[in-house]
Amino acid sequence: MAAKTIADLDLQGRRVFIRVDFDVPLTPAGGVSNPTRIRRSLPTISHAVERGARVVLASELGRPKGTSRVELSLLPVAAYLAETLGRDVVLTDEPAGDGAKKVVYDLREGGIAMLENLAFSPGEEGNDETFARELSTYADVYVNDAFSTVHSAHASTVGMVKHVANKGMGFLMEREVKMLGKLAGEVERPFVAVLGGTRVADRMSLVETLLNRADAICFGGAMANTFLAAKGASIGRSLAEPSKLPIVRAFLAKAEQTGVRILLPRDLVAAEDIKSEDGHVVPGSRIPEDQAAYDIGPESIAEMSTVLSRARTVFWHGPMGAAENPAFAAGSLGLAKAAALVIGGTTVVSGADTVSAAERAGVAANLTHLSNGGAATLEFVEGKKLPGLAVLES
To answer: Which of 5, 170, 230, 374 would staple 44 via disulfide (CB 3.0–4.6 Å)?
Structure first.
């Protein structure tokens, strides 16, 4: 059974528990430095408020590991949200308990309460039944608008949901499921995947899935180093995973058999250190022994960009290098611009660093979907069953 959306649910006068992802960076002065995650859930929150719901917002922030920490309080988030919405947002003094219950039960229609950082309670990450049941008493209706959380079986994403009859997805969650679902179904071809980032070990399951679906796969970042090493390249001090070479060689052999085109960097930008102010272009097969690769080179950018420009469906996760350093950002920015040229097709970009590259390239608005689901996005594309989504469908 497909999950309902918040638009399908009767909210008038009901306590509507909305699980959001407000795990945002804070300034040293205690403000919100990047409100993107908050703003993306505003349509869901506003919809509930406008329909007379008694809104209860819940999120984790940071990694307090089950203990209360002042510097990880959601107070700055509540203050930002109140200013943005132009209405009061009452923050409870604890994620659950008598104080939180009083705040929630005293809400009037259109009112908003925010539970203090769920991760202050060890019962959240441990999916403790007692904690889950207590959270469920705050909800006549449950809505999950935090796609980034659905791969984890926490109390607020799975445990409590089993005790709430009326449940569904928020608008942000609905869009993530819709757009990522396109990659799992019949896609317009050519379908090109671009994978960067670091560890092959963390991505091999995704790579195997894409081998069965994509027409071409482009590799960059540190992940590409292991692939290059598997083909006999000298990679200098570049980050790689020697233990994964047999797996990568088997993958490359399978790709050749199935006819899926694999694009590895023909050239790379190498330097002595990731903090270097510049680098120099070297062949992809010969990185100097005292240097490491930190970006793909211009020839690789041109080749991969050409493949992307001819695609009808693109899935890109992971930067092409150490893009946080402007000296090594050309590859990521170049591919972002190429992906933006896929007019009328579907372009899905995922991962904080990849989305950042698209924004810095000035092309984010030209891409079909920017996913901030992190591990949840990758597991969804792999075809894994996500517990926080499955519980909404039951």
So the answer is: 170
Q: Hey, what are 293's tokens?
A: 């690769």
On whether the CB atoms of residues 334 and 363 are closer than 8 A, the answer is no
Could you give the CA distance from residue 45 to residue 328 in angstroms, rounded to a whole number?
39
Cα 90 from Cα 78, distance rounded (Å): 7
Which range marks the domain in which residue 251 is found?
185-362
DSSP label at residue 217: E
Helices (H), the chain: 36-40, 42-50, 75-85, 98-105, 122-125, 129-136, 171-184, 204-211, 221-230, 245-258, 298-309, 330-339, 352-360, 375-382, 387-393
Here the CATH number for the domain that contains residue 284 is 3.40.50.1260
Q: Tell me the pLDDT band of 342, cut-offs 50, 70 and 90.
A: confident
Pairing type for strands 166-169 and 141-144 reads: parallel
Token pair of 44 as six digits: 């869901």
Using CB atoms within 10 Å of the CB of residue 177, give its burial: 0 to 12 exposed, 13 to 18 middle, 19+ buried: buried
pLDDT tens figures, 326-338: 999 999 999 999 9
pTM for the complete prediction?
0.91
Please state, in angstroms and rounded to a whole number, the distance separating the CA atoms of residues 286 and 288.
6
- Both tokens assigned to 361: 């390239």
Same domain, 200 and 318: yes
pLDDT in tens, 286-301: 999 999 999 999 999 9
φ, ψ for residue 277 (rounded to 5)? -80, -15
Q: Would you say residue 383 lies in a domain?
A: no
How far CA 114 is from CA of 19, 37, 59, 67, 106, in Å, comes to 10, 15, 8, 18, 13
pLDDT at 179: 93
**Taking a C-beta distance cutoff of 8 angstroms, is the pair 296, 328 a contact?**
no
Whether residues 18 and 133 share a domain: the answer is: yes
With 0-12 / 13-18 / 19 or more C-beta atoms within 10 angstroms meaning exposed / middle / buried, residue 226 is buried
Same domain, residue pair 126 and 234: no
Please check whether residues 87 and 145 belong to one and the same domain: yes
pLDDT band at 202 (very low <50, low <70, confident <90, very high): confident
